[in-house]
Design a protein that fits this description.
Blueprint lengths: L2 E7 L6 H11 L2 E6 L6 H7 L3 E4 L5 H11 L5 E6 L2 E3 L1 H12 L6 E12 L2 E15 L21 E2 L4 E6 L2 H22 L9 H12 L2 H31 L4 H8 L3 H10 L5
Parallel strand pairs: 1-2, 1-4, 2-3, 6-8, 6-9
Antiparallel strand pairs: 4-7, 5-9, 6-7
């Protein structure tokens, strides 16, 4: 069984080496998609023997589709984000999975989100993400502009923890969540998705991350501030969806419909988005 892997990166020279080491430890072929980095990250890939593919940023769907197209033939595809890595136990778990003659189309792995806030490092939450996919299932399209865009489908769980550098600043995380929320809303609006009550989202997600996932017990006040920001994403995405249905941000909708995804990201980044 052949396993191919990829990562998408920008200016990530501080986290990219460990990510690539993880992919090289478990995959037969690895590709790094460089979204026009300027800090030498692409040189890191080449020094480590990883093929680097450069392309202007047009969203996660386009970048992941380009990565899969650049990989050599394989049975499964595995991917990490540039701020993620595997520890030794996770590497052994994936190697063991490869030797077990897997048959499922999708395998979900536990993702540990680590926060480094105000001088304290703590585990914010652990959640499951589909990261091992049969090659034919790893079929991203450019219009899948946000992170987790593939349709949900039945998946087997694999206990191989992915370590994620989730947040180094509450304010930076807040800005990132609002950009993602607006991008999600544009995609959802064009797809004709229905809205949910925005006011119910924050308490539900604060309860989930702060109490059920245990962030509050591990990070205290810092975790609560971060949970407030992360929960704000779910408030914002339905608030933005309502705004779009009221005719706001027509230029973003038009850019998406005309598949000008690079321009869409630039426009969203230029907006002053407030919590």
């Amino acid at each position: 069984m052949r396993l191919a892997g990829f990562v998408i990166h920008g200016n990530n020279q501080d986290t990219l080496p460990r990510c690539l080491e993880s992919l090289l430890a478990v995959c037969d072929d690895v590709v790094a998609v460089d979204s026009m980095s300027t800090d030498g990250s692409s040189d890191i890939s080449r020094r480590m023997g990883v093929r680097s593919v450069s392309m202007a940023w047009e969203g996660y769907g386009a970048a992941r589709a380009a990565a899969v197209a650049s990989l050599r033939p394989s049975d499964y595809v595995f991917f990490l984000d540039s701020d993620e890595h595997l520890d030794a136990d996770a590497v052994r778990a994936i190697v063991g999975w490869r030797e077990s003659h897997p048959r499922e189309a999708v395998y979900r792995l536990p993702l540990r989100d680590w926060a480094e806030v105000d001088g304290q490092r703590f585990l914010y939450r652990t959640h499951w993400r589909s990261r091992l996919l049969r090659r034919e299932v790893a079929a991203w399209r450019p219009e899948m502009i946000v992170h987790e865009a593939l349709p949900r489908r039945r998946a087997q769980r694999l206990q191989a923890f992915i370590e994620h550098r989730f947040a180094t600043s509450v304010s930076l995380r807040s800005a990132k969540e609002h950009r993602y929320a607006l991008l999600w809303a544009v995609m959802a609006f064009v797809e004709g998705r229905t809205s949910k009550p925005a006011s119910l989202q924050r308490p539900a997600h604060l309860l989930r991350d702060g109490l059920l996932h245990g962030a509050l017990w591990r990070g205290g006040w810092r975790a609560l501030k971060l949970a407030w920001v992360v929960a704000g994403y779910h408030v914002a995405k339905y608030r933005y969806l309502c705004e779009l249905k009221q005719g706001r941000h027509p230029e973003l909708v038009q850019a998406f419909k005309e598949r000008r995804f690079g321009e869409l990201f630039q426009r969203v980044h230029a907006l002053r988005l407030t919590p």
